């Protein structure tokens, strides 16, 4: 037999978050805790199917008018319209002026990828792979790969996290924007920044928008956690809506994985805000070409669930309650962890645990302390010190707090 034609293929390293989960699964220790997972968990440590989702799934199953025909290339029209509406707001000037468009996508990742592909093809010239793309330092690790794979050659970071003060490095961020070449693309986390859990305040967003406008920088929002940051959909969309009110043309990638708990249904949306209807329609016509060769047309189940929920005032209210349940549990775990660390007298300050928002927290544990947590305590977290607050439960809080205390006092 001839040698395999794949002999020269190098083995790619595993994706960190999935590797961590696999290691956790294999760990036989009864005390083990997974704080690395990227999804919501109940106080019993279980995935949660939102009650409103269960109800709507039943409605869909009983609706005999539905079938499995292909959706249009750009997706389910009512899903796209409602998804963009919750990002931009009921009274959005851009919606009223008919200058928005949407692309249903395979999760938030799909929205980012389709948007990145479009920008490489058509933004700042034609196939301009040299346009700098700025990503926050740190960021969700996939941002970099998505834009590299779309063909961009100049991926840069902008300052975001100030490790010493465990907060936003606003001045660094603004300086990097001032220095960025005009027309650079900036990926902005709409809310609940992953992994730091630290967002600009409304006033800081105003400063950011002012620099971006003056320097002709393109805002590409990534909205993966709407509702998770504050418990309020409107508050969490504040930054995107402010930019729209300031007249920006922008993209906003939305994920419904977290706020609907529809991780494996792959429900996302890319909202395009342009200057006028004609511009948006031309953009959408190109988006259609990109989608056609990428996934041809999107899946329907998740989009139907979201569209049905968002189009009924009663179901919408139920969903908001479900989102609040998740957000409140995260808030409770934050305050419980902080108060335990403070009463143990764990060295350092722990106010950042309650000041940070969303599902994730940057604990400030260093890589050696993280290793101690995993090896000695069977508590799994990312090497960066990021923990998912939903991995905490009323049953494991004491153990996790004591273990953090030990890691901080024993390992420098
Ligand atoms: C910041 C950020 N953007 C996008 C995504 C992707 O979401 P989805 O699973 O819907 O593709 C995630 C998921 O973890 C995320 O954290």
Automatic annotation (TrEMBL):
Its cofactor is pyridoxal 5'-phosphate. GO terms for cellular component: cytosol. It is found in: Cytoplasm. Keywords: Amino-acid biosynthesis, Aminotransferase, Cytoplasm, Pyridoxal phosphate, Transferase. InterPro entries: Aminotransferase_I/II_large, Asp_trans, NHTrfase_class1_PyrdxlP-BS, PyrdxlP-dep_Trfase, PyrdxlP-dep_Trfase_major, PyrdxlP-dep_Trfase_small. Residues 31-404 form the Aminotransferase class I/classII large domain. This is Aspartate aminotransferase.
């Amino acid at each position: 037999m001839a040698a395999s034609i794949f002999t020269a293929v190098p083995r790619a390293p595993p994706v960190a978050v999935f590797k961590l989960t696999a290691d956790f699964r294999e760990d036989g220790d009864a005390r083990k805790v997974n704080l690395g997972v990227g999804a919501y968990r109940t106080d019993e440590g279980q995935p949660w199917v939102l009650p409103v989702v269960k109800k709507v799934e039943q409605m869909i199953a009983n609706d005999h008018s539905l079938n499995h025909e292909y959706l249009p290339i750009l997706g389910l029209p009512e899903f796209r319209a409602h998804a963009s509406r919750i990002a931009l707001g009921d009274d959005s000037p851009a919606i009223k002026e008919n200058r928005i468009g949407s692309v249903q996508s395979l999760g938030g990742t799909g929205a980012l990828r389709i948007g990145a592909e479009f920008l490489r093809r058509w933004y700042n010239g034609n196939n301009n792979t040299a346009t700098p793309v700025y990503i926050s330092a740190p960021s969700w690790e996939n941002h970099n790969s998505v834009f590299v794979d779309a063909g961009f050659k100049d991926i840069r970071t902008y300052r975001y996290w100030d490790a010493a003060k465990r907060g936003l490095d606003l001045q660094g961020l603004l300086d990097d924007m001032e220095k960025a070449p005009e027309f650079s693309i900036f990926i902005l986390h709409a809310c609940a920044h992953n992994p730091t859990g630290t967002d600009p305040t409304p006033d800081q967003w105003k400063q950011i928008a002012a620099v971006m406008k003056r320097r002709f920088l393109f805002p590409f929002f990534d909205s993966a956690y709407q509702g998770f940051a504050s418990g309020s959909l409107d508050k969490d969309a504040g930054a995107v809506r402010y930019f729209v009110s300031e007249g920006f043309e922008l993209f906003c990638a939305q994920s419904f994985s977290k706020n609907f708990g529809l991780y494996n249904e792959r429900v996302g949306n890319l909202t395009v805000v342009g200057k006028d209807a004609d511009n948006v329609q031309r953009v959408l016509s190109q988006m259609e070409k990109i989608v056609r060769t990428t996934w041809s047309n999107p899946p329907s189940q998740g989009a139907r669930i979201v569209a049905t929920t968002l189009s009924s005032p009663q179901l919408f209210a139920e969903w908001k309650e479900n989102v609040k349940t998740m957000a409140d549990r995260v808030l409770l775990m934050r305050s419980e962890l902080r108060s335990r660390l403070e009463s143990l007298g764990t060295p350092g300050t722990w106010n950042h645990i309650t000041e940070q928002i969303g599902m994730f927290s940057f604990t400030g544990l260093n890589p050696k302390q993280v290793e101690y947590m995993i090896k000695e305590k069977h508590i799994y977290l990312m090497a960066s010190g990021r923990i998912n607050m939903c991995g905490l439960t009323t049953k494991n809080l004491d153990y996790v707090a004591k273990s953090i205390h030990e890691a901080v006092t024993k390992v420098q």
